[in-house]
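May I ask you to comment on the folded chain given beneath this request?
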Amino acid sequence: MEISALPLFRGVPAEELPALLARASARTCAFQKGELLLRRGDVTRRLGLVLEGSVHIIREDFWGNRSIVGLAGPGEVFAESYALAGEPLEVSVLAAAPGAALFLEADGLTDARLTANLLHLLARKNLMLTRKMRHMARRTTRDKLLSYLSAQALAAGSSEFDIPMDRQQLADYLSVDRSAMSAALGKLRDEGVLTFRKNHFRLLGEERD
């Protein structure tokens, strides 16, 4: 994604963009899948914007158990709350696919248009978190899967769609055991509720008890 097309810079004339980027000490960073962009415990004054690829926001407990608490794709922001607050990161940012990010000094984003655009991006992230919590509120692995897959189908406007995660990542996102999730997917397939191949899913009519 071109920097000028980023939602953060919506409404900013092209001729003004270089000065705004300079004020925020902008720098781009290419990354490979599996690369850590930010590590838990770091203190950063820079927020990130995904230009290409995608990143996962992950949280690990004392024993190393991992959960995915957020996703960010092209045009989306990450680490903004920690950058603005100056607090140590309680999460890590991991590249989920090869790509690139733009990092900006939070203190340099003083333009009113950027502030308004950032608020819009934060509102979108809040909605994403609300949707994730809706899936997490379901009691069983089966119900969490159905809630998530239903939301993906509705967002795609089709019963057939791809999800942006592999099996382990999906298990981490839903905070369920991978083997239990695989068993639940197999049962749903056997019941004729859905079919799948890797990260491609197709929902088949009504769920059957």
